[in-house]
Amino acid sequence: MFYQKRTATAQMLKRSLSMLCGLAILISLQAHGEDAPAPYRIVDGKVDRNTYLGWRVFNSACHICHGVDATGTVVAPNLVQRVKDMDSQRFATAVLQRYVITLYSGQIADNQTALREGFIELVIKREQGELIMPTWDRDPNVKPHIMDLYAYLRARADGHLGDGRPVQIEE
Q: What is the pTM of this model?
């Protein structure tokens, strides 16, 4: 049992280190004004392992609020649109932090998208309330896969990946 915990910890550390190295490379490219390479790889309509893992993470943690294909719901925005102009650093920061949008007496504290209007009207009728996006910085199923999640959403945003479950490249 001790060996299994140690192996799992080592694997998580390797993934975290890999994610940090990738993020550092992307930040370095952006700092020098260079376009970062696409964070995904698609060959003959099939996606690489990381993009596929991103789809899995999205479908286990995010789809309830953001919709099955990341196209938004009345509760949460369309991520296919949101990620179009978002770099990996901004994306990771957004996902790892908690959003609390407080509503008081019909006044909306933060700008909201049209997708949230139906839900907001319900909250406003009760005079106050709040919408909370969970923080994922301590979730062991999400945090190590932030860049995988970004790869999946970016492939969708760039129009290179359609709706539904992607097929993984056999390597």
A: 0.65
